[in-house]
Amino acid sequence: MDTEATTSAPADTDPAPSSRGFYGCAIAMVVAVVLIALAAAGLSDFEKGLDGDGQMEQPGPDGSSSQPLGAGMTARYEDGLWVTVSAARPEGDGVYRLTVTYENDTDGELHLGRTSLDRPLAVRGGAADEDDTSDYSTSWVNSEQSEDALSPVLPEGESRVVPVLVEPSRKGAPVTVEVTPPHAGYRETAYFELSVG
User: Fold this and answer.
1) What confidence tens digit (pLDDT) does each residue in 85-113 have?
2) Counting CB atoms within 10 angstroms of each CB, which of 47, 55, 112, 191 has the fewest?
3) Nearest-CA neighbor of 137 among 176, 86, 188?
4) Residue 170 and residue 138 in contact, taking contact as beta carbons nearer than 8 Å
5) Does the pLDDT of residue 48 top 50, yes or no?
6) Model's pTM, two decimal places?
7) Among candidates 90, 64, 91, 66, which has minimal Cα distance to 75?
8) In Å, how far are 14, 20, 97, 166 from 90, measured between CA atoms?
9) CA distance 169 to 175
10) Which residues pair with 102 in a beta bridge?
């Protein structure tokens, strides 16, 4: 009896997934995540470059005249300059003391003093959005000394405290401090609104 030997071809089977393929996918995913993070950081830096490093960036009020900062709050400029205005403390005879602190975390020295007709620091009575139309007046008792304190160059990594003495027309009157640090390009004015007394 003749029997034909039948040979059957092996069935096509999928090869078992190799560990090389798994590791290759994992590495590709890690690289993609890193590239996305770098692109996001680059886009953020590009956006800051478009609006300039003289813009403020901080949580809460933006420091504009319609959303002024309060006592003890800090205006943070994108280039690394931080400006903080303290609460007003009584000095006696109706005069109050506050301080304006400049912290230079920029990449160079800063010239904070007056460079043109614009004042880098101004103090006036009334709310920040009133533009000198307030019923309250405030005398800035030591304006010349405050401007003199701003004159020397502020080196990188250092801070300067500028004392300000004010005499409001009445106790409890709002006082606005306007800080416009000079800049080669432009820096936004930071408005601080304080209650004196």
Assistant:
1) 999 999 989 999 999 999 999 989 998 88
2) 47
3) 176
4) no
5) no
6) 0.70
7) 64
8) 85, 74, 6, 10
9) 10
10) 83, 160
